[in-house]
Amino acid sequence: MTKHRSIAIDGPSGAGKSTLARALAKGLGYLYVDTGAIYRTVGLQACRTGVDPENSEAVTALLPNLEIGMGYGEDGVQRMYLNGEDVSQAIRQHEISRYASCVSALPAVRAFLLDRQRKLAEEHDVVMDGRDIGTVVLPQADVKIFLTAAPEARARRRWLELRERGEEADYDTILQDVKDRDEKDTHRATAPLRQAEDAVLADTTELDLDQSLALLMNIVKERLQA
Ligand code: DC
Hints:
Elements: E1 6-10, H1 17-28, E2 31-34, H2 35-48, H3 56-62, E3 68-72, E4 78-82, E5 85-86, H4 94-103, H5 107-123, E6 126-130, H6 133-137, E7 143-148, H7 151-164, H8 171-187, E8 200-203, H9 209-225
Parallel strand pairs: 1-6, 1-7, 2-6, 7-8
Antiparallel strand pairs: 3-4, 4-5
Helix pairs in contact: 1-9, 2-4, 7-8
Bound molecules: 2'-deoxycytidine-5'-monophosphate.
C-alpha cells in the first residue's frame, strides 16, 4: 500500500484555516477535510434534540444513533450529512459554533470521531484542518502548520463574512466570542489546541488571502522536499 501524504493545519477559529486549507488542497490535488464541520454536526444534533452540549452523559447517549456522512459537491466543497440530511448550511449558524465548541471538549466525542479522521488520511492524500490534527489525529503528518492571527483580525474577518451573508453582526460580540472559544479550545483537558513541536507557525494577521496562501504553499513545498 502506498503511503498517502498528509498536511495538518491547526489553529484557532477565524485564522482562515478552512479557506486556505481548501485552496491548498485544490492546488495540490489533495482531499480537503474540514474536521470542525464534523464537530459542528455533532453540535447541531445536540442543539436540535435540546441536549445540553456540556452534559457529557447526554451528548454521549446521542452518539450511537448519529449517522454522520461526508461528501464532496461538484465544486469540491465538503458537504456534511446528519442522518441523511444535508446540514452543510445549518452547521454554519452562529449558535452552532458554541455547541460545537462544547461537544468537542468531551472525550467521548473526540474518541468517536478519531478513527474516522485517521481513515480518511489513510485512504487519501489530505489537507486536514482542525485543532488537534498535528498533535493527536495525524502526529506523523508530512507537513504541520499552525495557522494563527490576532483575535481582533480574526473577529473582523468573521464580522465581514457574516455581513456579506446578510446576517446581523456586532463586532464586539464576535470578538468576545472569538476570545471565549480560544479560551475553551486551548484549556480543555482533552486534545487542547496547541502548536505541535514540529509545526511551522504561520501568522496571517497582516496578510491577505493571497499572501497567506502563498506563505502556506511555500511552507508545504519546502517541507515536502526536505
Ligand atoms: O473550525 P470550526 O470553528 O468549524 O470548529 C468548530 C469547533 O470544533 C471549535 O470550537 C473547535 C472544535 N474542533 C476541535 O475541537 N477539533 C477539531 N479538530 C476541529 C474543531
